[in-house]
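Page 42, continued from yesterday. The earlier attempt failed because a stray header line got pasted into the input along with the sequence. Redoing it now with the clean sequence only.
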Amino acid sequence: MTATMKHMTANFSKLDKFEGMDFRRWQKKMHFFLTSMNMVYVLSTPCPPDGGDQETAEQIRKRGKWENADYIARGLILNGMSDSLFDIYQNHESAKELWDSLETKYMSEDASSKKFLVSNFNNYKMVDSRPVMEQYNELIRILGQFTQHKMHMDEAIQVSSVIDKLPPSWKEFKHSLKHKKEELTLVELGSHLRIEEYLRAQDIDKPNSNNVAGTSSVNMVEHKKSTGYNDKKGKRKHQETNKVGPNKKSKLTCWKCGTSGHLKRDCRVNIGNKNTNGSGTSGSGNGFKNQNSKG
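This time it went through. Structure tokens are written below.
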């Protein structure tokens, strides 16, 4: 009994408290738990009748076993609810009475939940700003809730509906899926979407890398052109500086004194030396003589 209680305590702590929402999910979890504890039979099997004075020991044992299981099951159901709901339903005498009361209350509210789910699924449209697989998984979760509420939809209709909800940029891929001859399952559709999304991501990355490489290549080419142009411009300028064209005169250099800007006949050094040794050109000497003679 001690081992059973430990097992019960460990498993029960994993259950979420029922707060009044998602009753079907909580109900299934509680049903699984009662089944693992071998107590779920009290929800469908009535208590063995009292045999009175003629009751045998076996009948007493069976009735005692049922009553004990019913007491524990009712306590587990109540303790699996929030404190506010516990206060409302604690006075039910048996687990079955409590179970039936909860179903009557919350199953009727599930009718509105069904309408909400249908509306939510019909109005769902995928967008380009979010990953397609993320949105696909949300739709699968909604369809799973359909099953929980016992709303059955043919899988071919489910697949077609999900394809119709693909985002605008997937228009061509949507058409290709619709024109496939073989029917797809939801799992196969998910695989196709996953592969397509991966390929699209790869295509987005490639142009970026090409742009980077292209930009670098262009910059390198432009740099080379610019460098070559500047080099040529520099050479051309250097050549033009040193080049003596047909219409340009080279700078005059006196070979007597080595100074540029005049010829030997106009050299002041030459003129100064005329007074002492008469050296110089004949033209310059004649001019000097004529001036003296006139003096």
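Notes: The chain has a mean pLDDT of 76.
Reminder to self: strip header lines before submitting.
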